[in-house]
Specification:
Layout (H helix, E strand, L loop, with lengths): L16 H23 L5 H32 L4 H14 L3 H13 L3 H7 L7 H10 L8 H11 L1 H14 L2 E3 L2 E3 L1 H6 L6 H40 L4 H8 L4 H28 L24 H13 L3 H12 L3 E2 L11 E5 L4 E5 L6 H19 L12 H4 L1 H17 L2 H36 L6 H16 L12 H4 L11 H20 L3 H11 L5 H6 L8 H26 L1
Parallel strand pairs: 3-5
Antiparallel strand pairs: 1-2, 4-5
Helix pairs in contact: 1-2, 1-4, 2-3, 4-6, 4-7, 7-8, 8-10, 12-18, 12-24, 13-14, 15-17, 17-18, 17-21, 18-19, 18-21, 18-24, 21-24
């Protein structure tokens, strides 16, 4: 089986004639869009809308393909400077679309009967949701050439600072037990069964951050100030308001979810204290034991083992999903193993030109790595469900982005727990609880931290010490007495890439985890009849608000009761876990 993904079906390299041809095609598209923007006022509304949408579709197909390839190459080897250089070339061209695109959207938004024209035309009808959002977003567009200026300045501003954070965290040498390793590998040791390995790895991880923290602090401060300035120029009340609008999600939904989470946080603290006690700690769980395995450790998995397990398991849910999983493993969609220069963590990127996806993981053979693969393959299935949509209708909002991925996790963990012997059941149950704690407690701490950063950044530069103190404050608020306060993770802001891209790329994980749990509960009740509804829901995510998407499954997201129901299922698992560990120690 392949160890690395195959990108050659996209381009054979940056010297591939097809790459250069597409770059020229993108330049031509920018030129045509610029010319169109200059004559829009002379055109009949229908003609202007049709021509504008056709050019936007072309730019999305060609520009998206170019940028995706450069991004995937960069993630696979951040030490290679060529992808960054090529991305700069691509974005320099792509940024030329900002001004004419803004002009087109402003012109369209001023048409008094825009939505009626769109609904009546066969070429435009599919984009009714897009145009409704365009009307709303037009209030936040910058005048004249300002959109182009902002897009170009971002290349050497926020985007460059984000690249710096990724480069530093993927290349920083980590000294561990007399040897040098990388950050991805050292963070994987948090799952090691040996408690001394976990503790030593935690110490080595924190020590390595000291070498890069000041530079990354400049990245974070610069990105957040740019975001604040951008939001002010566009008339948003706050970065959070902008994030919610971009997410097609109501503030009432966020408040309902966070309110339910606040009510259930003490239950998670109960789990953390029970785990800490079982591991011999008296004052809550130290950070280095957050991911400590418990119960009977499962077997180590090869990539082939993971493939066979997931293909067989998902066949019981849906044949289409199972076949796609097999294709991903068999056709080199996945880059599996950690290595120097490779980006940490895991992600899935849709490759629309191929109707496929590409997945990056840092696979180490643990069952948690199999779950991570299932998670990313959920994103790939989500992408597959959207293949029938037009090019501008394939992006889904951040909160809904975690739906299929977390649903896959529910399928995998439920099956594994049901089939397990008592000791293995404890291990799997604890593994799922630690993951859920991450997307509830840890995500809440990240949301609180980012909120504090935005509240302070306009008035002050936050140095490393200040950011570390904010991080610890956020962790204390979210983890309560479940963690040992003397052993937190003050540098979590350094390693998490989510702070260096879209604003508030944190609460969507909690949303996804709880929304998927609610959907999985429906599947358990309805069985096979739920699957078509589930696929329809995934198809809806890119052409409807979060609230309207949930309504496909009969869910009201602004009702705190829905979120409480999802959390109640976790609470029952925590009670079972506590009973199991108390029985062991009794």
């Amino acid at each position: 089986m392949n160890e690395r993904w195959n990108l050659e079906p996209i381009y054979r390299g940056f010297d591939d004639p097809a790459f250069q041809a597409d770059l020229e095609a993108l330049k031509a598209c920018v030129g045509e869009m610029t010319a169109l923007a200059e004559i829009l006022e002379t055109l009949e509304p229908l003609e202007g809308l049709q021509r504008g949408i056709a050019l936007k579709e072309q730019a999305e197909k060609v520009g998206g393909k170019l940028a995706l390839y450069a991004s995937l190459r960069q993630s696979a080897d951040t030490k290679d400077s060529e992808p960054s250089s090529q991305m700069g070339r691509i974005m320099a061209v792509y940024s030329g679309l900002a001004a004419p695109d803004a002009a087109f959207e402003a012109w369209a938004a001023k048409l008094p009967d825009l939505l009626e024209i769109v609904a009546a035309d066969e070429q435009l009808r599919d984009y009714q949701f897009l145009f409704r959002n365009m009307l709303e977003d037009s209030r936040h567009l910058l005048p004249g050439k300002c959109e182009e200026v902002v897009a170009k300045m971002k290349l050497s501003g926020g985007d460059a600072w984000s690249d710096l954070q990724q480069y530093l965290t993927s290349t920083v040498p980590v000294s561990y037990r007399g040897k040098i390793t990388n950050l991805s590998s050292i963070r994987n040791l948090a799952y090691d069964p040996d408690p001394q390995v976990r503790k030593d790895a935690y110490a080595a991880e924190l020590a390595c951050y000291e070498r890069i923290a000041d530079a990354v602090a400049f990245s974070l401060n610069s990105i957040k100030l740019e975001t604040i300035s951008n939001c002010q120029l566009r008339g948003y009340a706050s970065p959070l308001e902008r994030t919610l609008k971009q997410s097609n999600m109501k503030r009432e939904t966020l408040d309902a979810m966070l309110g339910a989470m606040d009510e259930y946080l003490p239950k998670f603290w109960q789990y953390l204290k029970a785990k800490g006690k079982a591991l011999g700690h008296k004052n809550g769980l130290p950070w280095y034991d957050l991911f400590a395995p418990m119960g009977k450790a499962g077997k180590k998995y090869t990539a082939q083992d993971a493939r066979d397990y997931l293909v067989r398991l998902f066949a019981g849910f849906d044949g289409e999903l199972s076949q796609m999983v097999a294709d991903a493993f068999d056709n080199a969609w996945i880059d599996f193993y950690p290595r120097d220069g490779k980006a940490g963590g895991a992600f899935c990127a849709g490759v629309e030109c191929l109707g496929e996806s590409r997945i990056l993981t840092n696979f180490d053979g643990m069952f948690t790595d199999v779950v991570t693969l299932a998670h990313e393959l959920g994103h790939a299935f989500h992408n597959q469900c959207l293949k029938g949509h037009r090019p501008l209708n394939r992006d889904y909002s951040m909160p809904l982005a975690e739906t299929a991925s977390t649903f896959n996790e529910c399928v995998v963990m439920a099956a594994a727990i049901d089939a397990a012997e008592p000791q293995e059941r404890l291990a799997l149950l604890e593994s799922q609880l630690q993951d859920t704690t991450q997307v509830i407690c840890d995500i809440y701490s990240r949301y609180r931290f980012e909120t504090m950063v935005f509240e302070n950044r306009e008035e002050q530069f936050m140095n490393t010490a200040a950011l570390c103190e904010m991080m610890k404050t956020a962790q204390r608020q979210s983890y309560g007495d479940g963690l040992d306060e003397s052993c937190l993770h003050p540098y979590m802001w350094v390693c998490k890439s989510h702070y260096y891209g879209p604003t508030f790329y944190n609460f969507p994980y909690a949303f996804g985890a709880l929304f998927a749990r609610g959907l999985y509960a429906q599947y358990q009740q309805e069985g096979a009849s739920f699957v078509p509804k589930y696929k329809q829901l995934l198809r809806t995510t890119s052409v409807a608000s979060a609230e309207d998407t949930a309504a496909v499954a009969g869910i009201d997201l602004t009702d705190k009761g829905f979120w409480r129901g999802a959390l109640a299922g976790v609470a029952r698992q925590i009670d079972e876990f506590c009973a199991l560990v108390e029985g062991e120690n009794g």
